[in-house]
Design a protein that fits this description.
The protein is 36% helix and 24% strand. The protein has 13 helices and 19 strands. The strands form 5 sheets. Strands 1, 8, 9, 10, 11, 12 and 13 form a 7-stranded antiparallel beta sheet that branches. A 4-stranded antiparallel beta sheet has the order 2-7-3-4, with helices on one face. A 4-stranded parallel beta sheet has the order 15-17-18-19, with helices on both faces. It is elongated. The two termini are 41 Å apart.
Length: 390
Amino acid sequence: MNIHEYQAKQIFNKYGIPTPKGLLALSVDEAVLNAKELGGPIWVVKAQIHAGGRGLGGGVKLAKSLDEVKQFADEILGMTLVTHQTGPEGKLVKKLYIEDGADIKDELYLSVVLDRKLEMPLIMASTEGGMDIETVAEETPEKIITIPVDPAIGFQGFHGRELAFGLGITDKGEQKNIITFAKKLYQLYMDNDAEMIEINPLVKTGSGEFIALDGKMGFDNSALGRQPDILAMRDLSEEDADEVEASKYGLSYVALDGEIGCMVNGAGLAMGTMDTINYMGGTPANFLDVGGSANAETVAKGFEIILKNPKVKAIFVNIFGGIVRCDRIANGIIEATKITDVNVPVIVRLDGTNAIEASEILKKANIANLIVGNDLGDGAAKAVAAAKGA
């Protein structure tokens, strides 16, 4: 789960991590009132969406007067902001953050992310603040510092010194400031079950203080049950509507760009199914895991969500009957076709408990668009052929 910049900064402030003063605005008039309350003399008008690269897309503007605050707020609020992280469809800007200007002497990059290979948090930093870290990694990887922190010992002084020296900070006072800053950021990461915290840029002021000029945070969905304050910050309007709807029915859904809808039970099998479709010359339109308790209602909802995508030319249902019996799934598929108007070929491959019985049930149902696959390869090949009109 991701949150907005203004929400990230609220959490930063709880941990004593310095940020510029700012106020949320939902209208142009509120943006001007917020700017007056902050006092100026300069303000930053920021679009609030769950994506990076807002400045490059025109979503961050520096205003030097209240008239400019009004002008920029009017331009940004309601715009469809396109960045490298939103995709070409962009995201509608519904919220603004009006923030004080800052005394910027230098711009750095600082983040805490989960390193799945090392199985521990990783502090990443760079002197190239304000740039996309992906660009820095590609063009000047030597400018990225990585410091793994073992949770068994937590953030220690040597981690901080490695960070300060790696960033080329030689002033003793500034070294102390950046170490304290990083220690608080690591503690925030651990306390809140975060998966990623990114500050880009982290600015050093003329007085040698460090301030989070931006803030981006993502959290472990599986841990939200013990993070009610974080869960309360969830903005469903920023998430894919189909993915949100699918989650209400216990379905794990992710939209993709292909033309073969996939309905599978089990994340590993779903990944293997998509790989097989690609191998057979097709392209998957989605990842959809119906879980181990699929029934007519969940299958029908899966069909409904898949068919919202106009690119879908066929649906491949690939179920392994381990927890759930295949004959129950077969009957669920038949009932689902009665509930939902399925107007594309449906290729079904069932294996496991009562697979033979399930195959007979599907054949006797005599549904025009339903095709039975003998195994994974056969089912994927038939789905690809159906999507191509064969």
